[in-house]
Amino acid sequence: MQNYTPHITPWPKTLIRGFFRYCPRCGEGRLFKGYLTPHSKCSACSLNFELLNADDGPAYITMGLVCLFLIPFFFIAQARYEPPFALALLISLPLTLIIILGLLPFIKGAFIAALWKSGGDN
Ligand SMILES: [Zn+2]
After folding, report:
1. How many structural domains are present in the chain?
2. Residue 62 lies in a domain
3. Ligand 1 center to residue 83 CA distance, Å?
4. How far is the CA of 6 from the centre of ligand 1 (A)?
5. How far, in Å, from the CA of 47 to the mean position of ligand 1?
6. I want to staple 47 with a disulfide (CB 3.0 to 4.6 A). Which of 19, 28, 42, 121 is the partner?
7. What's the N-to-C CA distance of the chain in angstroms?
8. Quick check: 4 and 25 in contact, CB under 8 A?
9. What angle do CA 18, 35, 68 make, to 5 degrees?
10. Quick check: is 122 in a domain?
């Protein structure tokens, strides 16, 4: 049995494991059983994922990151190409939604990994 204490695994490795939706402790078991629903425990090392409750944190981080990068992009596109308002909405709203929904599971995985690394399962 390996020693799986959080202080042994470095932060970058832990976050990368979580980002790619693997168990932050062993890196072998899958973190989610669906789009955003975590398994109750890791299939490889039995880490209890139910104690690592992410709540709304990943959603706030994802929306913050997407807005940080997309809002300047939309302003630049508006200033440069001056598209009609309806066309700008038709492009920007679905694009924002797709990026947020695509990024959310990865951010949630990294967030759960950060919770485990910081001792959230104690
Ligand atoms: Zn594991």
Report:
1. 1
2. yes
3. 49
4. 12
5. 6
6. 42
7. 20
8. yes
9. 65
10. no
Q: Supply the DSSP symbol for 22.
A: B
116 alpha carbon to ligand 1 midpoint, in Å?
11
Q: Tell me if 3 is assigned to some domain.
A: no
Q: How far is CA 23 from CA 48, 93, 98, in A?
A: 10, 33, 25
Residue-wise pLDDT tens digits, 42-56:
999 999 999 999 999
Task: Take residue 87 and report the two structure tokens written for it.
Answer: 């066309």
Query: pLDDT tens across 3-57, in order?
Result: 566 668 899 999 999 999 999 999 999 999 999 999 999 999 999 999 999 999 9
- pLDDT by residue (tens digit) across 65-111? 999 999 999 999 999 999 999 999 999 999 999 999 999 999 999 99
**Tokens describing residue 101:** 């929904």
Domain span at 81: 11-117
Residues whose Cβ atom is located within 5 A of ion ligand 1: 23, 25-26, 29, 42, 44-45, 47
9 Cα to the center of ligand 1, angstroms:
12
